[in-house]
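REVIEWER CHECKLIST
Item 1: Sequence provided? yes
Item 2: Single chain? yes
Item 3: Sequence as submitted:
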Amino acid sequence: MRRLSAAWYSETDPVAARARRAAAFEVLFGRAELVAELPALLAAVDAGRVHAAAAALAACPPAVLGVEPAGGRP
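Item 4: Structure as written out by the authors:
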């Protein structure tokens, strides 16, 4: 977990990178502040929760999402 947190801080150190991440979190979750909160949130996840989430996902059938241009233009 320390490596993941260190990598996160390293990747978001430049101001432009941090701004892009904050913008993405704002669009996706409505919470730009997750940029600062993510390392603590990740640290709160233990191996048991990861295992349970992986088992739940493994039990689900895979999905395919098709994206086609609008208006019939290729």
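Item 5: Key structural point noted by reviewer: The chain has a mean pLDDT of 84.
Item 6: Recommendation: ____
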